[in-house]
Amino acid sequence: MVIANYAGWEWGATEAFDSSYARGEATPFSLQGVISGWRCGLSGHRVGDRLEIAIPAELGYGQPASSPNAPSGAWCLLSKSGMR
């Protein structure tokens, strides 16, 4: 289980399509329940690390997107902080 604050943007967008920061609280999730790009990007990082992960479409949300707010078939940038 990972608990983190994060925001996700479609590449080139100015507004996040999903953000725990906007909801005001870190989000708990299982690494088995996230896109492949998150699993690859978080691998080897430790509690407290801050990172930005550029995720290509093939490791992202799929076509059509698996999440209602996520971009379909697009590159994404995820910013994560405060992993526990």
UniProtKB/TrEMBL annotation:
<dbReference type="InterPro" id="IPR001179">
    <property type="entry name" value="PPIase_FKBP_dom"/>
</dbReference>
<dbReference type="Pfam" id="PF00254">
    <property type="entry name" value="FKBP_C"/>
</dbReference>
<dbReference type="InterPro" id="IPR044609">
    <property type="entry name" value="FKBP2/11"/>
</dbReference>
<keyword id="KW-0697">Rotamase</keyword>
<keyword id="KW-0413">Isomerase</keyword>
<comment type="similarity">
    <text>Belongs to the FKBP-type PPIase family.</text>
</comment>
<dbReference type="InterPro" id="IPR046357">
    <property type="entry name" value="PPIase_dom_sf"/>
</dbReference>
<feature type="domain" description="PPIase FKBP-type">
    <location>
        <begin position="1"/>
        <end position="74"/>
    </location>
</feature>
<protein>
    <recommendedName>
        <fullName>Peptidyl-prolyl cis-trans isomerase</fullName>
        <ecNumber>5.2.1.8</ecNumber>
    </recommendedName>
</protein>
